[in-house]
Every structure is written in C-alpha cells, then in structure tokens.
Amino acid sequence: MSILSTVTRRRLAAAVALAATLLGASACTSGDSPHTPERSAYKEGRLRVLASSELSDMDEVLKAAKAATGVGVELTMSGTLDAVEQIASGTADGKYDAVWLSSNDYLRLRPETAGKLSNETPVMSSPVALGVKPEALARLGWKPGAVTWSAVHEAVAGGKLTYGMTDPVRSNSGFSALVSVASALSGAQAALTGADVAKAQPKLKEFFTGQKLTSGSSGWLATAYTQRGDVDALVNYESVLLSMNRDAKTDLTVIRPVDGVVTAHYPLTLLTSAPAGARESGRALTEYLRGAEAQKAITEQTFRRPVAAGVGPAAGLDADKRRELPFPGTRPVADGLMASYENELRRPSRTVYVLDTSGSMAEEDRIGRLKSALTDLTGSGSSGTGQRFRDREEVTLLPFGDKVKKVLTHVVEPGNPGPALDAIRGDVSALRPEGGTAVYGSLKAAYQHLGRGSEDAFTSIVLMTDGQSGDKVKDFDRFYAQLPAAQKHTPVFAILFGDSDRKELAHITELTGGRLFDATDGNGSLDGAFEEIRGYQ
To answer: What is the CATH code for 126-263+322-338?
Structure first.
C-alpha cells in the first residue's frame, strides 16, 4: 500500500471520526451508556426513539435537554424506509415511543401508518445540496449562487463531473436528491407524477452515469469520498457537507441549486402506542428543542437550520431563498421512482461474495444461517424494490475452504430475473462445510475476478468468515498494493460471525476502504448484515 502524506493521514483520521459520529451506534442513550444492544422496556423519564442515523450528532444537545427537562433519549438508528416498514407493520409498537426521521413524507404515503402517529413537530431543517471540490468548481466555471440541477446534469453528461450519493432505496438523503433531480429535469411545476418521471428518464440515466460512489449511510460516504480522492462532488444534506468541511477538513463549496431542493425537517413524532408518561416526556422534549437555547446549539453544532423565529442560522449557512420542491404525491410515483433508479438508472453492480465454507461452519448450524441469509437476498422475480438482487446485477459466489472451491457467476437479466435468482438459490443450497480458512487467497481471487469484467459498474466484495485465516496477511497486502488504482476502489465489506477475528477483518476493511458489520451473537443477525450491505453495493 502506498505511503500517505501526513496531510492525507490526518484527513483520513478526521473522516473516520466524522463517520463514527454520522453513523452512530445501533442504539445510543443520551446521558448514560452510549450503547444499548437490547431495546429496553419503557421507563419513566426516558424516551425510546427510532431515528435517522445522522442524528447521532445530536448527542450534546440531548444531554443538555436531559439536564433541563429530566427526559433522557434512547436513540435507535435506522434507515428511513426501514423505519417506515417497522411503523407500518406494527413492529415499532411497544418498542418505541417516538420516531425522529429526516422526513415523514414517505410515512404519509402509507395509509396504514395514519393512526400510529401523533404530535408531529419539526425541530430543524436541512436541504439537499451539492458539495463541489474547488478545482472542479473552477474547471466548470460555476458561480455557486447560480447553479441549477440542469447545469449539473450537463456537466455529468459531458464527462466533466463525478459525484457520490447515498442509495435512494435506503437513505432519505439519496431519495430527496433523486426527487430534486427528477423534478428539475422533467420541468415539473408541482408534485412529481408518473408522466414527469417518464419524461425525465433519459436525462436521469445520463445523470447517474456520473455517480461513482454509493452508500447506505452518509457517514461511510463521507469517509469513502475522503479516502478515494478522485470524485469531484457529493450530493447530501447541506448539514453533512458543512460538517465534513469542519471535521474532516474538506474544502467543499456547498451549493443549493436554484431550481429547487427537497428539505428535511426532522419532525419529532410521538407514536399513539406510547404510554401516557412517554407522550408527556415527548412534549417536554419537543418544547425544549424548539426553544431559543437549543435551536442555537443545534444550528451551531450540526449546521442544521433553526425553525424557531428569532434564531439565526449558524455561520456558513446561506440565507438566500430556494424553491422548495414537493415530495411525490402518491406512493406509486415514489415507489416507481425508486424502482427505476434501482433497476434502470444507476450503474449496475458487480459483487463477489467470498464465503467461508470451512469445516467450522458445520458448528451451531452456521452453514444453515449463511444459506438462509443469502437465499433471502434472492427474493423472487416479483419482489419489491430493494428486496432482491437488482436487474443487471452480476452476482458471484466464491465459496472457500483451504482454497477457492468454485467461482459461480450469474447476471440478473432485466425483464426475466427468475432464471438467475433460481440459479443463485441452487448454488447456495449446494454449499458444504469442509476444509480450512484461506481468507486472503480467496480475497485475491475475488479481486482478480472483478478485474476481468466491465469497469462501468459499482464493484464490491463481501467477506463472511467464522474464523481466523490460515494464510498470510502480508501476501494479500503486497497483492493489494500492486493493484491498478481503479481496482483499489473496490471495497471489502466484512462480516464478523462466529469466531472470526475482529482485528483481522478490521485490517481488511481499512485497507480496502470498506466497512465492518457485526453479526456475532447479541450484536445482530447474519441476514441483517447482508441486507444492510446491500445499500453499499
């Protein structure tokens, strides 16, 4: 691996720190222990909140709120659409007292959630924005206050701009960006319709040729952007981009396109299933958060915009007005837009699943859990958006023991996904546990396989192992250092499982710019880890 300059190392360290803040833990309790793996029962004076992941940066504000009101807040981080499913299905009832997402717009499109929400109160706001490197801004000759989404599309279509953006199917910042671009490129004068989406389709396809980074979370996207260094811009919430400039020492010019943006208003929303005491705590917390002292702290610490009259935005927040673009008015339009992105608009994915099928996988039915998790990813040809491998996706299974056993590749054909999905299920069913654990040699084989295909795709490697590697890390490190620069941009997403070595897997993910997911007992499920990784592919 090449030796990084001192400045680069410092920026990477800052980016990792920023990612830890933005990603947060799976659950975080303000004022007490920062980690609560198990969802606790209701306690007087404590509010259990299902929240957007970026709200982990509200810790200091929530500590002050507890001191002022006596209300402690226990946050459980979630993607917006996953949270919507929990609320709609009723699984949030009794587990949470409130929901605090970047937006409730998609919730309102689900009629089954109507009786589950009460007392919806915006706490702060942040519009979708574009953060552009100084050299790219100069190259394009843009004046930040006059840039439109159409100008961004023109730059991308001309091969003059690349960018990163979160996955609209799993992240509200990504979906808000998708709505903003679709509205601007279709010329829609009101909420998007199906006809608007169809009209914008050719330009949207061109727009997404410039997307070189995707992610299931804003935090990892920030880290990957800083580590790669070859992407011109990021599409994300204004608050995230400004926090990057402060904490990761990036120098992005933050642009809110003049033809309109979608804004997150972060409504703190009580659930009707919450106990009476929790509803009282929620009202006290909301009142405090909308007060002048808290609003000032929120905008200065997080770069979100205050909603209370008389409190000005933090320095660096442009006060010029922008057109607010409406959310799609019907669920079919919203779902259709996400499905179009997933299966038609975005660059296709090429993913290699490097799967430990050594003898130890026979213990505790680990192989059965692996088969179940992978089978879940195949869904069916009629599965909803995000519930199966995407159209055009190349999926490779690379099971290993002492060495690579097989390399099994399938491409999900648009309009006819069934044969590939059936074939993947068959390959998964045939996995057998035997042999040792050649992790590093198998990773080398995965990189070599990806190097023989198209570069016009999002590439990634998923590593699942339940033990320590039987081969040498130094051999893999030397191999990785000699890869072409483009191949080094393929991250490894590793899953802690069984008796796997955290230090070993952390080294692999840090080296390759990936991320570690924990599926060990008490920290999460294997199928949950595989599903979460989907947002990064």
So the answer is: 3.40.190.10
3-state secondary structure (DSSP) of residue 101? coil
What six digits make up the tokens of 324?
């607010």
Query: Alpha carbon of 56 to those of 53, 101, 187, 523: distances in Å?
Result: 6, 12, 36, 19
Query: 49: which 2 tokens?
Result: 């909140």
Task: Report yes or no on whether pTM surpasses 0.90.
Answer: no
* pLDDT tens digits along 45-64: 999 999 998 898 999 999 99
Cα–Cα distance, 186 to 48 (Å, whole number): 41
Q: Kind and range of the H or E element at 285?
A: helix 276-289
Which of 104, 134, 103 lies closest to 117, judged by CA? 104
The per-residue b/e assignment along 459-496, b for 16 or more CB within 10 angstroms, e otherwise, is bbbbbbbbbebebeeeebeeebeebeeeebbbbbbbbb
For residue range 415-455, list pLDDT tens digits in order: 999 999 999 999 999 999 999 999 999 999 999 999 988 77
Domain ranges in the chain are 18-124+265-306, 126-263+322-338, 348-536
CATH topology of domain 18-124+265-306: D-Maltodextrin-Binding Protein; domain 2 (3.40.190)
